[in-house]
Predict the structure.
Amino acid sequence: MELLRVGVAEEDEVFRRGLIAVLLEEDWDCTVLATDSAANGQSADSVADLDVAVVCVKVLGGIPLQCPIVCLADPPLHGAESCYSSDNVKAVLPHDHLSADELVASIRAAVAGLQVESAGLSRPGDAVLDARSIQVLRLLAEGAETRAIARRLQLSERTIKTLVREIQLALGATTRAQAVAEGFRLGII
């Protein structure tokens, strides 16, 4: 077995100890990372030497990490979409109902550079677009403007603008181009 250096950032001490117990069963080297309520932090050099970090979404933005991150999402408080604030996030798992096997497998995958997401959590854009929204997104991908889309679908321009905005929100995009790119990435169009 490989020796991994794993950082753990979790505010809840009992949960943090449970995570560490699972990691130690794998004979991995664990480091508790500093959070606002956890004073057992490490130096910047120790953080730089990590192979992977397991981080609760509540403290994700407060720790500068360059290694792959396994983010633990708490959907009722901070949905899975909050985990995507860092490009280093390679796995998104539920904070509650997390199994030891799921955690270990996700850590191994993250270290290997793979992307992992628990089936119970959704990334922005995983919401299914209805048929009309997909049709509008496809027309946007073809380069059609609002007026042309409205004429083709026999809808008002205002309706098309509203649909485009809803598509952007569903896909987590701020522009039409980003929505189209995300649509291609997700295989919607």
Remarks:
- The chain has two domains: 5-117, 131-186.
- The chain has seven helices and six strands.
- The domain at 131-186 is CATH 1.10.10.10 (Arc Repressor Mutant, subunit A).
- The first strand starts at residue 5 and ends at 9.
